[in-house]
């Protein structure tokens, strides 16, 4: 191997006779291998080659807890062993696992995983609270759902999303607890949360069942049905007209059909042609009268 590291150049010498000083020439260390090529690079031993993503981890987490019993200690122990070697809490992995469990309607597992996550002090967000509330309602644990909603409502009173009120009102509507339903709706009005169309419809049905027509009229007057709404068609947000009844005749009444549009266009075109012909005829008559070609009787 030939190395040119300590090479001396005369450019480094100072010129004593003159005032100028030569600039040093920079030489990079040149290393030439015997095989005439770059040095071979070997993979590092400490660097892992297999990269496991969050999706595969979430699938493993679902498979890990799916075959267990409903004993709290067994499920919590499996979850602790799953995250034992993690440097940070895998919050994204747990959220994706919860989404997968929600698609499979594993409500008990969702409750256990969220409560375990809350005990670790992680993931206390509105989305996690709503997933837990929905899982408790779907699992038939109404009392725990009411306690959870009361805790969330007292803690996040002014910033509570409308979806929580909608879920509780729909729960009380299905159960038949109309008094609690009215209480939640009163809390919504006090906080200035505008109800959704589904909430207004459920309240209207209850007022009609209980024969409270005066309150029903006030409700319809205060919250009239929207005339326009946004719908997503092929990924695009489109503003569409809302009809009170879903009948075909009323739905097509506001917009003419294709045949009607073609007929209207043909009528409009015929009228334009007639107007153009009459105007041209009048112009010719005036020209002939001006030139004296017409004979008056």
TrEMBL record:
PPR repeats (start-end): 161-195
Superkingdom of origin organism: Eukaryota
Entry-linked Pfam families: PPR (PF01535)
InterPro entries hit by this protein: EMB1417-like, PPR_rpt, TPR-like_helical_dom_sf
Keyword Endoplasmic reticulum: no
Keyword Nucleotide-binding: no
Entry keyword set: Repeat, Transit peptide
Protein name: Pentatricopeptide repeat-containing protein
Organism: Urochloa decumbens
């Amino acid at each position: 191997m030939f190395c040119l590291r300590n090479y001396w150049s005369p450019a480094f010498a100072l010129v004593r006779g003159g005032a100028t000083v030569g600039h040093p020439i920079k030489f990079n260390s040149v290393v030439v291998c015997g095989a005439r090529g770059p040095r071979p690079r070997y993979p590092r031993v400490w660097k892992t080659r297999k990269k496991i993503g969050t999706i595969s981890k979430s699938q493993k987490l679902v498979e890990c807890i799916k075959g267990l019993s409903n004993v709290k200690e067994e499920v919590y122990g499996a979850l602790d062993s799953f995250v034992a070697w993690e440097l940070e809490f895998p919050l994204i992995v747990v959220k994706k696992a919860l989404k997968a469990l929600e698609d499979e309607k594993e409500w008990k597992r969702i409750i256990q995983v969220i409560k375990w996550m809350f005990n670790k002090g992680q993931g206390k967000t509105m989305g996690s609270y709503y997933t837990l509330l929905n899982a408790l309602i779907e699992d038939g644990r109404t009392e725990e759902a009411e306690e959870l909603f009361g805790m969330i409502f007292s803690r996040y009173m002014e910033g509570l999303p409308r979806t929580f009120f909608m879920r509780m009102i729909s729960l009380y509507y299905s159960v038949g607890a109309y008094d609690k339903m009215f209480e939640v709706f009163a809390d919504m009005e006090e906080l200035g949360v505008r109800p959704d169309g589904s909430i207004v419809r459920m309240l209207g049905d209850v007022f009609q069942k209980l024969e409270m027509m005066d309150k029903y009229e006030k409700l319809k007057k205060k919250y009239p049905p929207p005339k326009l709404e946004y719908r997503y068609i092929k990924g695009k947000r489109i503003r569409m007209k809302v009809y009170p009844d879903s009948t075909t005749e009323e739905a097509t009444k506001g917009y003419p059909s294709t045949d009607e549009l073609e007929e209207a266009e043909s009528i409009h075109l015929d009228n334009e042609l007639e107007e153009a012909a009459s105007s041209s005829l009048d112009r010719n008559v005036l020209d002939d009268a001006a030139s004296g070609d017409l004979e008056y009787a």
